[in-house]
Amino acid sequence: MMEKDAKIYVAGHRGMVGSAIVRELNRQGYHNIVTRTHKELDLIDQRAVEAFFEEEKPEYVFLAAAKVGGIGANSDAPADFMYDNMVLEMNVIHSAWKHGVKKLEFLGSSCIYPRLAPQPMKEDCLLTSELEKTNEAYALAKISGLKYCEYLNRQYGTDYISVMPTNLYGPNDNYHPEHSHVLPALIRRFHEAKENGLPYVTCWGDGSPLREFLYVDDLANLCVFLMNHYSGNETVNGGTGKELSIKELTGLVAKVIGYEGEIRWDPSKPNGTPRKLLDVSKAAKLGWTYRTELEDGIRLAYEDFLHNPVRAER
Q1: Among 3.40.1160.10, 3.40.50.720, 3.30.420.40, 3.40.630.30, what is the CATH number of 8-169+213-240+278-291?
Q2: Angle at 200 between CA 171 and CA 190, to 5 degrees
Q3: Residue 180 — very low, low, confident or very high, per pLDDT cuts 50/70/90?
Q4: Is 242 exposed, middle or buried (0-12, 13-18, 19+ CB in 10 A)?
């Protein structure tokens, strides 16, 4: 268990996941939280990361920092996604080990699992077959971080764990029109269509892929829960165990936003993985379950979009 006065470093505290972890830590009474902006600490700079750990000596680390993006961004810049994420996570994890951090939690992504993994995907299906090509570079980097934690545990007896969340959404999301994930992209697209009185909205693919979505504050609750109640080399899935088609999702977003025009599909654009449902039975057995239903979460995310103009205009 983390002591209430323990020094906790949240890497990536300005991002959607990191900011949610900080909110959850504060909610649970943890207030000795160390953060650094990218300008203050470039996690790709090994010497700077070493100096930070030497100076601050955090006892616990949540590694939520990452270079992230949707299908388009991952396809356009695979080398950048692989290098930046690989170097960033190796620097932080290695420095944490070198400076005696008590426990570290590594945040991954469900895209680490094989493209055609048996559904729902259990934690032990990792590396059993090929990855989805559209985000392979990002997945390889995340797998490397997860495995490095495992190898440190085995070789040096550290207590480093990892959590693999499903598709996330919520406060502080990225709403960029071309480089965001599907749900925030849809929120922006339908909002602008409603504002501009557009008769129809065109969405990528054919709407058939099935997806699972977890509200980011629920993930943060899981992250703190695992830091206090789980140790082990195998990752833990974070999700709802529920899925819906992208076509159903677009209808739900349109409903929440109040857009009443036509929804069209562009099958020339990629669908991505056909299905990506996590098996969440492991987290359930540990005593955790999600709280926020999708429609309620979309309403909260839309409120965040409306009241965060900087985020909305990225």
Answers
A1: 3.40.50.720
A2: 10
A3: confident
A4: middle
Task: Record the tokens describing residue 52, joined without a space.
Answer: 């930070």
**pLDDT, position 314:** 42
> To the nearest whole number, what is the mean pLDDT of the chain?
93
Give the integer Cα–Cα distance in Å for 312 and 185: 10
Half-sphere exposure of residue 259, counting CA atoms within 13 Å on the CB side? 26
The answer to whether the peptide bond before residue 184 is cis (omega within 30 degrees of 0) is no
Asked if 261 and 200 count as a contact pair (C-beta separation under 8 A), the reply is yes
136-162 mean pLDDT: 96
Q: Which of 138, 160, 175, 302 is flagged as catalytic? A: 138
HSE-CB at 265 with a 13 A cutoff on CA atoms is 13
> Degrees (nearest 5) of the Cα angle 65, 69, 73?
135
Centroid of chain to Cα 217: 11
Query: In the annotation, is 138 catalytic?
Result: yes
Reported as a single tens digit per residue, the pLDDT across 85-115 is 999 999 999 999 999 999 999 999 888 999 8
Partner residues linked to 238 by β-bridges = 165
For the chain, the domains span 8-169+213-240+278-291
How far is residue 217's CA from residue 144's CA, in Å, rounded to a whole number? 26
For residue 105, list its beta bridge partners: 62, 161
- Tell me which of 142 and 312 has the higher pLDDT: 142
Helix residue ranges, H only, the chain: 16-27, 46-56, 71-76, 78-98, 136-156, 182-196, 216-229, 246-257, 281-286, 294-307, 309-312
